[in-house]
């Protein structure tokens, strides 16, 4: 049964990501067609074609490796001025339509030239007014931003009902309401084991504290929040403890003596400290909220994601070191879709986690991946969507300045000149992806608990 549930979790996560990728590409295709562009292919996946069907001028299909997708928008790369040959015809305005020839001077120049040649091999004179590079800059921005925007909308659509009902597991409020009472005092290193006859009774149990009691004060210190209560308990050592609790709407005063035991100070890397111990666990409740709360949380996620993207190479290096055994894998570090699938499988198959918690965690995982995919694609570097967006914005600024200062129109921005950057970035992404996948297989991040 556990294996079946694990497999179900992996498959649900994988299916959700494939659907997300498909919708990402739908975003690009929809606006490209809306603005008159020619879309010849829409595929989900890479590698050998599994299935395809021609509908109108667009071929729709699935490929064998569902790790991405693409739409082929005709005319992404303009012809280079240095490569223009004789006119191959005219457009509807009488302007010449040019073919391009390959240039063989230098490795990167050759790569750019080959990319242009491949782009223009199937372009005919009648395609000229529909070429992507000829679109207004704001249309190009819209087409390229539509894909990652869809991922962000998917995340938003999941977060809103989840935060409004179950709550946000990343924004937990800890209150001085008793969620659990320890039956005995056991060492911190053995806190998962059952009590024995040799273990002393926990002070909270001896005092008669019950689950659901709200701690009002501890030795006269008002319980404004759990941190205040915890600090007072730890500083009390083995002294007398007078605890006021609210139960069934009425306040009761309970008396006991805390005991001294070694407990974590908060940082797992710091040694245990001898502190006062009562034996109660506070209530940790995920915060709830609607649309405005979700937008606020997604704003915080944006900041954290940008910080994570800056640190991504360093984090991936840490995963590489964990693979060879030099250091431990950071449980809060990046994971690949393989790692995400493992976490989904472990969540669904976990015997202790309630069904509602499993569903909420799985939805959070799917929404989190969509949010990261959306933000990552906005990075202003080719081959990411953000690279094309940056090129279109640069074109708008350059043409705007030329117009203001009455200079000749500099024309369309040549994205092909950035292809060397795209090759380097693409290689870096490939290497990081492989490292994360290997790390998720060799030293995987596992579900806590």
From TrEMBL:
Any one Gene Ontology molecular-function term assigned to this protein's record: metalloendopeptidase activity
Main location: membrane
Membrane topology: Multi-pass membrane protein
Keywords: Hydrolase, Membrane, Metalloprotease, Protease, Transmembrane, Transmembrane helix, Zinc
Family indicated by similarity: Belongs to the peptidase M50B family.
Database matches in PANTHER family: MEMBRANE METALLOPROTEASE ARASP2, CHLOROPLASTIC-RELATED (PTHR42837:SF2), REGULATOR OF SIGMA-E PROTEASE RSEP (PTHR42837)
Name by which UniProt lists this protein: Site-2 protease family protein
Chain ranges of the PDZ domain: 202-247
Location in the cell: Membrane
Species of origin: Nocardioides jishulii
InterPro entries hit by this protein: PDZ_6, PDZ_sf, Pept_M50_Zn, Peptidase_M50
Residue ranges the record marks as coiled coil: none
GO cellular component: membrane
Cofactor(s) required for function per UniProt: Zn(2+)
SUPFAM superfamilies in the cross-refs: PDZ domain-like
């Amino acid at each position: 049964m556990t294996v079946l549930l694990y497999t179900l979790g992996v498959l649900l996560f994988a299916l959700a990501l494939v659907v997300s990728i498909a919708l990402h590409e739908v975003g690009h295709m929809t606006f490209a067609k809306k603005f008159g562009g020619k879309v010849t292919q829409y595929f989900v996946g890479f590698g050998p074609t599994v299935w395809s069907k021609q509908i109108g001028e667009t071929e729709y299909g699935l490929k064998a490796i569902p790790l991405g997708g693409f739409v082929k928008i005709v005319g992404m790369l303009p012809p280079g001025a240095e490569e223009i040959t004789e006119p191959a015809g005219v457009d509807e305005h009488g302007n010449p339509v040019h073919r391009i020839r390959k240039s063989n001077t230098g490795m990167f120049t050759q790569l750019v030239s080959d990319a242009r040649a491949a782009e223009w091999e199937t372009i005919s004179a009648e395609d000229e007014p529909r070429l992507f590079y000829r679109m207004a800059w704001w249309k190009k921005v819209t087409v390229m931003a539509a894909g990652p925007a869809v991922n962000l909308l998917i995340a938003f659509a999941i977060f809103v009902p989840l935060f409004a009902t179950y709550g946000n597991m990343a924004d937990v409020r800890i209150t001085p309401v008793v969620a659990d009472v320890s039956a005995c005092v056991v060492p911190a290193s053995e806190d998962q084991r059952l009590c024995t006859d040799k273990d002393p009774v926990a002070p909270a149990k001896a005092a008669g504290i019950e689950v659901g009691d709200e701690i009002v004060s501890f030795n006269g210190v008002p319980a404004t929040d759990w941190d205040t209560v915890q600090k007072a308990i730890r500083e009390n050592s083995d002294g007398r403890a007078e605890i006021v609790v609210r139960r069934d709407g009425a306040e009761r005063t309970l008396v006991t003596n805390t005991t001294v035991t070694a407990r974590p100070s908060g940082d797992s890397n710091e040694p245990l400290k001898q502190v006062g111990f009562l034996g109660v666990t506070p209530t940790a409740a995920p915060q709830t909220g609607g649309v405005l709360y979700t937008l606020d949380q997604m704003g915080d996620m944006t900041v954290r994601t940008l910080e994570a993207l800056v640190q991504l190479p360093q984090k991936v290096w840490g995963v590489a070191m964990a693979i060879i055994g030099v250091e431990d894998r950071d449980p809060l570090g990046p994971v690949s879709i393989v790692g995400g699938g493992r976490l989904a499988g472990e969540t669904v198959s976990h015997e202790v986690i309630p069904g509602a918690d499993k569903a909420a965690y799985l939805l959070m995982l799917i929404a989190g991946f969509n949010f990261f995919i959306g933000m990552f694609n906005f990075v202003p570097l080719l081959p990411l969507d953000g690279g094309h967006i940056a090129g279109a914005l640069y074109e708008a600024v350059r043409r705007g300045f030329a117009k203001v200062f009455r200079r000749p129109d500099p024309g369309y921005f040549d994205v092909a000149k950035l292809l060397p950057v795209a090759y380097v970035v693409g290689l870096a992404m490939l290497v990081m992806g492989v490292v994360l996948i290997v790390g998720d297989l060799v030293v995987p991040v596992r579900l806590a608990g």
